[in-house]
Design goal:
Elements lengths: L1 H6 L12 H17 L10 H20 L4 H27 L5 H25 L1
Helix pairs in contact: 2-3, 2-5, 3-4, 4-5
């Protein structure tokens, strides 16, 4: 099934680690850590921490949801991941307006976020 290949990397098991959306969100988190590394030091407990926590929350909720016993619970955690993604998008825009990241970085990060968001919606639809 094409949809199943979209959602899972072809491997032996259906672990959350095989979910393409989890893999992309993990890479996205690493990218957020890289970008926030250069934020002003006085933002260490502000924007830097907030963006990193939101980014980590995306892949963490995908993983936790996949480990739950019901489709309903999985969908709930995927919805939380979508919320964290939206939160992070807002923070990316704020960081750009504060000139903490370049316009180019903002566009790149938002494009990656949009791709992950579409994948989350697709996964939710496939579970329903």
């Amino acid at each position: 099934c094409v949809l199943k290949m979209f959602i899972f990397m072809v491997r032996d098991s259906n672990s959350y680690q095989n979910l393409l959306v989890w893999q992309k969100s993990l890479d996205f988190t690493v990218s957020i850590y890289f970008h926030t590394k250069y934020f002003p030091l006085d933002e260490r407990f502000g924007m830097t921490s907030q963006m990193r926590r939101a980014a980590v929350s995306i892949s963490s909720n995908i993983a936790e949801g996949q480990a739950r016993h019901t489709h309903r619970q999985f969908i709930q955690f995927l919805s939380i991941a979508r919320g964290s993604l939206s939160e992070l998008e807002t923070q990316i825009i704020i960081a750009s307006r504060l000139n903490y990241i370049s316009n180019e970085s903002e566009h790149d990060l938002l494009a990656r976020s949009e791709e992950i968001g579409k994948m989350l919606v697709g996964l939710i639809k496939s579970i329903r």
